[in-house]
Amino acid sequence: MNQFERLVELTAADYELHIVGNPLMVQLSQGEVTQDHYVAYLIETFHLVRHTSRCLALAAARLGDERRGLRAWLLEQAGDEHGHELFCLNDLRQLGVNSERALRVLPGPGAWGLVAQNYYMATYGNPVGLLGVATATEGMGASL
User: Fold this and answer.
1) Residue 8's CB: how many other CB atoms inside 10 A?
2) CA–CA distance from 25 to each of 16, 22, 107 (Å)?
3) Pairwise CA distance, residues 119 & 117, whole Å
4) How far is 144 from 137, CA to CA, in rounded Å?
5) Residue 144: pLDDT band by 50, 70, 90 thresholds?
6) CA 72 to CA 105: how far, in whole Å?
7) 128: closest CA among 71, 51, 45, 88?
8) CA distances from 138 to 55, 96, 99, 142 (A)
9) Of 109, 105, 114, whose CA–CA distance to 39 is shortest?
10) In 10 A of CB 30, how many CB atoms?
11) Cα–Cα distance, 144 to 140 (Å, whole number)
12) What values do phi and psi take at 99, rounded to 5?
């Protein structure tokens, strides 16, 4: 068992309790999420995603030549993610919500925490740490 598999195994109970068992996730699995829930999700996602490409590029810039392959991958991901926040704004407009609202409000504590953590890891911490956040957010989204 590699380190990642061990970490997943060790945090499985927390994942079930705090993610799968979260009241909003339970509502989602039962088809009880409202448009207001989705609007709030889009606004929070907008704030997170609009910083993703910047954080990936910052992390890539800190990697030395000994990690040239990872640096290239991070830069490629930064390019791929660039502009994805506009999908959130478009969905808000399609729902009849003034998308400028997303630009005016501050992110909630969850999105704010992820954005701050990503910038910290990219600039002061270990830039490879962004892979953990990406694995969690992308992997969780795909699995749920």
Assistant:
1) 14
2) 11, 5, 20
3) 5
4) 11
5) low
6) 34
7) 71
8) 15, 27, 24, 6
9) 105
10) 8
11) 6
12) -65, -20
Terminal CA-CA length for the chain: 24
What burial class does residue 52 get, using C-beta atoms within 10 Å of its C-beta: 0-12 exposed, 13-18 middle, 19+ buried? buried
Token pair for 80: 């791929």
Position 122 scores a pLDDT of 95
- Retrieve residue 18's tokens: 């705090």
pTM of the model: 0.82
Rounded CA gap, 99 and 62, in Å?
A: 34
pLDDT of 98 higher than 80: yes
Residue type, 11: T
Cα(12)–Cα(26) distance, rounded to whole angstroms? 17
Average pLDDT, the chain: 89
Torsions phi, psi for 105 (to 5 deg): -90, 150
Q: Which secondary-structure segment (H or E) carries 121?
A: helix 109-123
Phi-psi region of 31 (alpha: psi -120 to 50; beta: other; left: phi over 0): left
